[in-house]
């Protein structure tokens, strides 16, 4: 990572949504990994929720967070596969003002090292909506780790050069955990 030393770290207010028909908070290892990583990086957990894979409930939750002044990033884990119930990309894509095409492409490129050609079945995506970065990740803990370490840690850090997403996010006066 290229870091600009005279640029200060900017803690972001991040919401985490787990989409799963089978998990509860007690066994939500993917959501918990994202929460742990964002806190370790110095960011703030702005909100957290766990929903069944229901297109309209997912869309409503994400739309609510996009509309909130305090939430700058939404990380969603789950619902990006090809089963009949997987609907996260369909729930989220219509909310985006701009899609970050390279996010899914890069995620699949780096995950091929771990899961081989199975990476083609990932429908990971990201985009910007109302100054909020929304990232849809697969539901596996390994995929969330790959996305955090390979993309998110740098792109959510204002010091990362040559560019990152922090400058594109809505400003928040003070980040306070409401986790």
Automatic annotation (TrEMBL):
One of its GO terms (biological process) is Mo-molybdopterin cofactor biosynthetic process. Pathway: Cofactor biosynthesis; molybdopterin biosynthesis. Residues 15-159 form the MoaB/Mog domain. GO terms for cellular component: cytosol. SUPFAM superfamilies: Molybdenum cofactor biosynthesis proteins. CDD domains: MogA_MoaB. The keyword Nucleotide-binding applies. The keyword GTP-binding applies. One of its GO terms (molecular function) is GTP binding. Keywords: GTP-binding, Molybdenum cofactor biosynthesis, Nucleotide-binding. Belongs to the MoaB/Mog family. May be involved in the biosynthesis of molybdopterin. Can bind GTP and has low GTPase activity. Can bind MPT, but has no MPT adenylyl transferase activity. PANTHER family: MOLYBDENUM COFACTOR BIOSYNTHESIS PROTEIN B. This is Molybdenum cofactor biosynthesis protein B.
């Amino acid at each position: 990572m290229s870091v600009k030393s005279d640029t200060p770290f900017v803690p972001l207010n991040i919401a985490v949504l787990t989409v799963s028909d089978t998990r509860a908070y007690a066994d939500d290892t993917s959501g918990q990994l994202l929460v742990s990583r964002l806190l370790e990086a110095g960011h703030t957990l702005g909100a957290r929720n766990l929903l069944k894979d229901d297109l309209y409930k997912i869309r409503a939750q994400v739309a609510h967070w996009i509309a909130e002044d305090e939430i700058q990033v939404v990380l969603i884990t789950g619902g990006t596969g090809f089963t009949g119930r997987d609907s996260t990309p369909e729930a989220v894509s219509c909310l985006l003002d701009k899609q970050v095409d390279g996010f899914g492409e890069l995620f699949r490129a780096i995950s091929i090292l771990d899961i081989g050609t199975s990476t083609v079945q990932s429908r990971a995506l990201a985009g910007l909506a109302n100054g909020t970065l929304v990232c849809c990740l697969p539901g596996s803990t390994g995929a969330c780790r790959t996305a955090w370490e390979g993309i998110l840690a740098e792109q959510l850090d204002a010091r990362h050069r040559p560019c990152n997403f922090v400058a594109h996010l809505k400003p928040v006066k003070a980040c306070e955990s409401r986790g």
